[in-house]
Structure prediction request, 71 residues.
Amino acid sequence: AAARAELPEAARGHPTDPRPARSLAWFELNTGNPAAAIQALEAGVERAADPSDLLVPLGDLLVQTGRVEQA
Prediction:
């Protein structure tokens, strides 16, 4: 429960760092919420100084959830 609150805060607190967004996405995916994982990665891509570490996991999730045209 604490991670659910702390990870989004970390992502907001370090908007240009892709690592909190990736961690939040991983957490959401592992707790059964792929839509929230995609949202976390998309937000991270928009804010990160270098979003390259987020693009592959985002593409993978989009394909896995049937959103191939967005990948």
Notes: The chain has a mean pLDDT of 91. The CA atoms of residues 52 and 70 lie 16 Å apart. The two ends are 31 Å apart (CA to CA). Residues 34-47 form the longest helix (14 residues).
